[in-house]
Structure formats: C-alpha cells, structure tokens
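Worked example 3. Consider a protein that binds magnesium ion.
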Amino acid sequence: MTPPHVGSTHQEPASWLVRARGITKAFGEGDTKIPVLKGVDIDVASGEVLLLVGPSGSGKTTLLSVIAGILESDEGDVQILGESIQELSASGKTNFRRDHLGFIFQQFNLLPTLTAAENAAVPLFIQGVPKLEAIARAEEVLRTMGMGERLKSLPTKLSGGEQQRVAIARALVGEPQLLLCDEPTASLDGETGHRVVEQLCAVGKHPDRAVIIVTHDSRIFEFGDRIVHMEDGRVDQIQQREADLL
Ligand SMILES: Nc1ncnc2c1ncn2[C@@H]1O[C@H](COP(=O)(O)OP(=O)(O)OP(=O)(O)O)[C@@H](O)[C@H]1O
Ligand SMILES: [Mg+2]
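Given these inputs, the predicted complex is written out as structure tokens:
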C-alpha cells in the first residue's frame, strides 16, 4: 500500500461529481441548539473513491445525509452532477436520488416483510423495472456477495453481516452514479469484508461514477483515492494517495 500523503485539496480534476460549499447544520432550538456541521467544503471527482473518517459524533452521517438531500443543511450548497440539491422540490429530490444515488445506511433499513432478494431489488422496483427482472438482477448481485443460499430469507432470519450485504446489494443494484456508504463493512468478517470493499470501490474505478465511504475500517484505507478527516463538524485534514501526486 502506498501511504497517503497529507496534502492540499487544490487539484482541478476534469469534472466534479459532488461539490459542497459552506455546509452548516445544527440540531435543536435555542439553548439546546447543537451545531453539528460548521462550514464543510468537500468535492468528489468523477472516478474517485473518497473515504470519510473521524471520531464518533464528528458529523459524518449528518454530512452524508445532507449530500444525499435526505437532510436539509442550514447554510451552504450541494451540487451533484451540476444540480443544486436544495433547490429541488421534495419530489425532485426523491426522483434525483432514484436516478443517480445509492445509499448504504449505518442502520440497514431493510423492509421486514420482504425477502433478501426483494429488499435488494427495491431501487429497481421504484425505477419501474418489471418485478421478475428486478429480482433476477438483485439475486445476481447478492450471489457475488456469497448470499446465494439466503436469497429468499426474511431479514429477521439473517445475521447482521448478511443483512449488511443485502443493504449493500440494494445500493449497488441500480448502478448509481454516486454511491454513499455509511460504515458498510462494520458487520463483515475478513474475507467477506474484503470482497465487498472491492465491489464498492470498483464503482469509483468507473470514470462517470464515484463513491464516498464513511469508515473506521483500516482494511478500506488502501482503496481510497483521498481520505477526508472530520473533527467536530469540520474537515480537519485531507490525505491524498501519494502515487496520484507523482
Ligand atoms: N436528528 C438528530 N437530532 C439531534 N442531534 C443529532 C441528530 N442527528 C445527529 N445528531 C448529533 O449530531 C452529532 C453528529 O452526529 P453524526 O451521526 O453525524 O456523527 P458521526 O460522525 O456519524 O458519528 P458515528 O461515527 O458515531 O456514526 C452527534 O453529536 C449527534 O448526537
Ligand atoms: Mg455515523
């Protein structure tokens, strides 16, 4: 592994997939108001794997949710594929997410009455892909994750690591341009975790796609093009893979 280099962010790649500027977000009101994001600027280039690391409570999940348009920031602007997310209507945001984003939540958010394959197929159902085709595509992704024996199981019958793989398959199945992952390997053992990390990072090898991975998992670090460190609601440091600077 080439050790990342602590460096500047002032690089001008051909195209940015995400450009966020001056993002602030507080929770609560009045005396109990807690500022969580305190002015975050972050860019993600097409073809990039960007890792987001930092202590618990530093604002990583909040930032991912703002980028996805799931949570509204108080100030600042997020552009994805040149579109200002906060300027979209509620249905515009939903459609934008359906068409361009995949999200792996820290909590897996699986639907309890659907099988593993049906859960993984949900984004395709929403896109209007016929049911049998959607399930067949979801099953194919699940099989690549070693889940071939669990396709028809309900979430309650799956282990934590199996549920996590269903959540990952659900994010990958629609081949989104931007994949947002919150601790995607926390419940996965060595071999499975390695395979899944490779699948997630392969998304960033595609010139028109990118992936942001929030992680504490040092197994992932070698796959990151850049590692963004968050501390107390701010971007504290950005490490760039040294090989890319040469
Ligand atoms: N809906 C909410 N209401 C109030 N406070 C919140 C809410 N969501 C997050 N917070 C607070 O915002 C801070 C940042 O939370 P966030 O989940 O973004 O941290 P994180 O960096 O993802 O942490 P972890 O590594 O533990 O997942 C925390 O102090 C948390 O308590
Ligand atoms: Mg979090």
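Take a moment to read the result before moving on. Residues 4-107+176-245 form a domain with the Rossmann fold fold (CATH 3.40.50.300). The two ends are 15 Å apart (CA to CA).
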